[in-house]
Amino acid sequence: MSSSIAQNIEALCQEQGIDRDLVIEAMKEAVRAAAKKQFRSGEDIQVDWNAETGIELSASKVVVDEVENPATELSIVEARELAGDEVELGDALLLPLPMEELGRIAAQTAKQILFQKVRDAVRSNVYEQYIDKIGDLVNGYVKRFERGNIIVDLGNLEAILPRSQQSRGEQYERAKQHRKRIKRNESHLQRSHHRTG
Question: What is the DSSP letter of 163?
Answer without folding.
Answer: G
